[in-house]
Amino acid sequence: MIRDIYNRNPQDPNYVYGILEHSDPIESIISKIKILLGTSQGQILGDLNCGIGIEELIFETRINKIELEEKIKSQISQYITESADYKVEPVVSFGRGDGTDYCIIDIYINDSRVVGVRII
Q1: CATH number of the domain to which 11 belongs
Q2: For the whole model, what pTM was predicted?
Q3: Which of 4, 23, 25, 69 gives 20 to 30 Å between its CA and that of 97?
Q4: Long-range contacts of 22-27 (CB under 8 A, 24+ apart)
């Protein structure tokens, strides 16, 4: 069984104190999704296509909800091999509030919300 470093933020409501390693495949998927969301293409040495670059996609292009969901799905299936055993679905919504635009990205694994990102 593969062991991975436990890297949840202590402010995460699902953070478990005292854990340094884990062997939970869903926890590994969550960790890798967060990395893909925060990584821009070209930042990973040796694989210039790895990474979603969420902020660049949302604010520097005119991407729509379906295109962004497909981009996220594609990156997850390509770079997170253990995700093949689970139903991983991104749900994207755009909105406007208080004079600013925003994007909310929720990631569901087996119909349970595991990651939520709000980008302003």
Answers
A1: 3.10.450
A2: 0.84
A3: 69
A4: 25/82, 25/85, 25/86, 26/86, 26/109, 26/114
